[in-house]
From TrEMBL:
Protein name: Putative glutathione S-transferase
Binding site for glutathione: W85
Pfam families linked to this entry: GST_C_2
InterPro entries: Glutathione-S-Trfase_C-like (IPR010987), Glutathione-S-Trfase_C_sf (IPR036282), Glutathione_S-Trfase (IPR040079), GST_Omega-like_C (IPR047047), GST_Omega/GSH (IPR016639)
């Protein structure tokens, strides 16, 4: 997620006549055997914000694959000005590894005068302090396919070769119509643009309801990259998209198949235990001042319904295939239980 460049004291502007996401990212890749950016444990730092759905994908994949010891993680706070995400959660408001207060510093280190929005997730080369890539769709695929030497024992195959064509096809529709579709609704600047965006979004959600009615996961019988990409939007739906973005034909909790599917993933290690509802609400309601001028953050909705039984086990499937669930997240990376009432002191979701 990015913000449009402006001065350091103002929030960005988001509403457009018809919202179009800028997808020109830094396309460098970290690859096994690569010359400029080779896979190397301890060299890179993944910078994220728990509030951001695009960054949340990378957090989930890194955790599912057990890459915590190979790639460190810096966590920005949930709000930012129009200029940069900041490390205001860290002591002294400085990232302890990169030694910078603002993610923009890593972008500027490599690209002086960087002209575009400062986005998360971003991977930073620790020795040089410069950003390597912010290409969020490719980051998670590369974590699955290029970092296999550092995957934990029992790590799932999130991008199995025999299913890649179908995963890519599903991902494309989910991205354009759902992941980006909620933003198209929320940032629409005209009634006509909003009406069209609303219809597109709920047409896609109805398609997903039908697709998932008799299969536990989006592609195949295990969790894949496709489920990760859909989950981060569903996790934010009732908390922010339904009201803040006017995606209000129905709540997620009123779409029975998707609601059960989302709860199934939420209670799977790696998903709900990386979800910080307080930071999610703080970001959207405080940063998008052209939509919510007061910056007031709503107290609801009640989140305890995420723990209700989902019954999806009856559809079969094996969440991790021949692998195993990840263990508890490292202590320094656990979601604050105050921000997600279903997370215990060990960082895991209580089922």
């Amino acid at each position: 997620m990015s913000e449009k460049a402006s001065d350091d004291t103002q929030q960005g502007t988001y509403v457009e006549d018809e919202f179009t996401r800028d997808t020109a990212y830094i396309e460098d890749r970290i690859t096994d055997g690569g010359e400029q950016w080779p896979v190397e444990a301890g060299r890179y730092r993944l910078v994220v914000a728990r509030a951001c759905p695009w960054a949340n994908r990378a957090i989930i994949v890194r955790r599912l694959l057990g890459l915590e010891d190979a790639i460190s993680m810096g966590i920005c706070g949930p709000t930012h000005d129009a200029n940069s995400w900041t490390f205001d959660l860290d002591p002294g408001e400085v990232d302890p590894v990169l030694g910078i207060p603002r993610l923009k510093d890593a972008y500027e280190k490599r690209f002086p005068g960087y002209p575009k929005g400062i986005t998360v997730p971003a991977i930073v080369d620790v020795p040089s302090g410069g950003v390597v890539t912010n290409n969020f769709p490719q980051i998670t695929l590369d974590l699955s396919t290029q970092w296999t030497r550092f995957h934990r024992d029992g790590a799932p195959d999130l991008y199995p070769e025999e299913l890649r064509a179908e995963i890519d096809e599903v991902n494309e529709r989910v991205y354009t119509e759902v992941n980006n579709g909620v933003y198209r609704c929320g940032f629409a600047g005209t009634q006509a643009a909003y009406d069209a965006a609303y219809e597109r979004l709920f047409t896609a959600l109805d398609w997903l309801e039908e697709r998932l009615a008799d299969q536990r996961y989006l592609v195949g019988d295990t969790i894949t990259e496709a489920d990760v990409r859909l989950f981060t939007t569903l996790a934010r739906f009732d908390a922010v998209y339904h009201g803040h973005f006017k995606c209000n034909r129905s709540k997620l909790s009123e779409m029975p198949v998707l609601w059960a599917y989302a709860r199934d993933l939420f209670t799977t290690p790696g998903f709900g235990d990386t979800t910080d509802f307080a930071q999610i609400k703080s970001h959207y309601y405080e940063v998008h001042r052209d939509i919510n001028p007061t910056g007031v953050v709503p107290l609801g909705p009640d989140l305890t319904n995420w723990a209700e039984p989902h019954g999806r086990e009856a559809l079969g499937g094996r969440p991790f295939g021949d692998g195993t669930p990840p263990g508890p997240p490292p202590e320094g990376e656990r979601v604050d239980p105050a921000n997600n009432p279903l997370v215990g002191a060990d960082g895991l979701v209580r089922v």
